[in-house]
Design goal:
This protein is an alpha/beta fold and 442 residues long. The chain contains twelve helices and 13 strands. The chain has a seven-stranded parallel β-sheet, with helices on both faces. A two-stranded parallel ribbon has the order 7-10. A two-stranded parallel sheet has the order 8-13. α4 packs across α9. The structure holds nicotinamide-adenine-dinucleotide (NAD). Its cofactor is NAD(+). The chain crosses the membrane at residues 37-59.
Length: 442
């Protein structure tokens, strides 16, 4: 090193005045300069050689430059979309085979700090009834979950038991506004589901379904995540076909009071399929039928929660119309199992997820009487507009392709919901009384 520096210094010194011809011929000085230049060139080439060797042999493959594999935004041909989709699925399989942490570095050691076991999953509407049960299952499976919720109908209480878990995050955010998150999967549930709530601000409901779904599909496109839409049996409207098969296109009123929800979900399905076909995004669509269970909103106008809350409060059970309209009721754990199978499977859907066991409103009222209070009275009221007469899923497709079917009967599931409602209704009453100085001694 010292000699190199010395040489460099020498080469930067001003040239000495030419010595007398007799003692130092000019040819020998020129050859020294040429030799020094060749020497320097040699070191430059050795340096380049070492660097090339290092990048090609020492660094793991994941760090080397690879041609970009993201689908072009201009792929519109179905074959191209299918090819892109299968490429994405292939990458996902590789990702999962690598334990979810080796996407960029399948061959080498995972650098410290980048290693993680589960998937990163966002659940929009995760503080709501269905969403919070889904979050429980995903956290139990070992995934990291980000809940995005504006708390319109959801409650922090539904997910409070995960506070402090480093694999859980809760973000107060309205899906009508864009959000950027690095995730592998998106379960998109954000939307009020009960008529009382979705009719409260119908324009906001349709905005949530259209703009909210667009934002989440945009996120899926941007980060290469798989996207699952929770659609609804309401897309069948007041069905003329019974039971409803996924190929049935429905009988929906586009200008009715429920249209903000029905048509909103239909548009959300359309957007989901267009992102899939046009942009190669991996999507899944679930059409959910009436679901019940713990953590449902009290007094949300849905028939099961209405009956249970009324029976517990010793109020009459309100039956709309003649009570002969039918519904099928699925327990929430069955639905969550179906949603997860759909997300993990290879089929886009749509899939009906519901319990095909059919009950009239009067039969349901009887089960509630048996479970809570045999003396509960039934009160008839005029029916609401656009209330479908019959609703029962055909779940053959989910049985065949997802290997899924409900396992919890109404007689098994209802008591679980009743104990949750009992605890919430009576602890609410206690806290109301104590805030008026009724029961506490303090
Ligand atoms: N429960 C059912 O019987 C049923 C039936 C069919 C479809 N679904 C669908 O399943 C999903 C979940 O339903 P649920 O029963 O849990 O309803 P829910 O009302 O309990 O949950 C919806 C959640 O979304 C949140 N939310 C609403 N608008 C939002 C917005 N703009 N931005 C962010 N968060 C928002 C709410 O605060 C709530 O936490 C919904 O998409 C619903 O349409 C449910």
């Amino acid at each position: 090193m010292a000699s190199e520096l010395t040489r460099r210094n020498q080469s930067h010194q001003p040239h000495p005045s030419p010595p007398p011809l007799a003692t130092s011929p000019p040819t020998s000085s020129r050859s020294r300069v040429v030799a020094a230049a060749l020497h320097r060139l040699f070191f430059v080439f050795v340096g380049i050689g070492i660097a090339t060797l290092f990048f090609h042999a020492v660094l793991p493959k994941g760090f080397q430059t690879v041609p970009p594999q993201q689908p072009s935004l201009h792929h519109h041909h179905p074959d191209v979309a299918a090819a892109v989709s299968s490429e994405l699925s292939h990458r996902r399989v590789l990702y999962e085979a690598a334990g979810g942490g080796g996407r960029m570095n399948a061959g080498g050691k995972v650098p410290l700090g980048l290693k993680r076991k589960g998937l990163r999953i966002v659940v929009t509407g995760g503080a709501g009834f269905v969403g919070s049960h889904l979050v429980d299952r995903l956290i139990a499976r070992g995934d990291s979950v980000i809940v995005v919720d504006n708390f319109f109908t959801g409650r922090k209480d539904n997910v409070a038991h995960h506070f402090g878990n480093p694999r859980f995050e809760l973000i107060r955010h309205d899906v009508v506004e864009p959000i950027l998150l690095e995730v592998d999967q998106i379960y998109h549930l954000a939307c009020p589901a009960s008529p009382v709530h979705y009719k409260f601000n119908p324009v906001k409901t349709i905005k949530t379904n259209v703009v909210g779904t667009l934002n989440m599909l945009g996120l899926a496109k941007r980060v290469g995540a798989r996207f699952l839409l929770t659609s609804t049996s309401e897309v069948y409207g007041d069905p003329l076909q019974h039971p409803q098969v996924e190929t049935y296109w429905g009988n929906v009123n586009p200008i009715g009071v429920r249209s903000c929800y029905d048509e909103g979900k239909r548009t959300a399905e359309t957007l989901t399929m267009d992102y899939h076909r046009g942009l190669g995004i991996e999507v899944r669509i679930a059409r959910i039928f009436n679901t019940y269970g713990p953590r449902m909103c009290l007094d949300d106008g849905r028939v099961v929660s209405n009956f249970v809350a009324q029976a517990l409060r010793k109020e009459p059970l309100t039956v709309y119309g003649d009570g002969k309209q039918t519904r099928s009721f699925q327990y929430v754990s069955d639905l969550v199992e179906g949603l997860m199978r759909l997300m993990e499977g290879e089929h886009v859907g749509p899939f009906n997820l519901g319990n095909p066991g059919e009950f009239t409103m009067l039969e349901l009222a009887k089960v509630v009487q048996e479970t809570i209070d045999p003396n509960a009275r039934i009160e008839f009221r005029p029916n609401t507009a656009d209330d479908p007469h019959k609703r029962k899923p055909d779940i053959s497709k989910a049985k065949q392709l997802l290997g899924w079917e409900p396992t919890v009967s109404l007689h098994q599931g209802l008591p679980l919901m009743v104990s949750d409602f009992r605890q919430r209704i009576f602890s609410d009453q206690k806290s109301t009384m104590s805030s008026y100085g009724g029961t506490t001694s303090a």
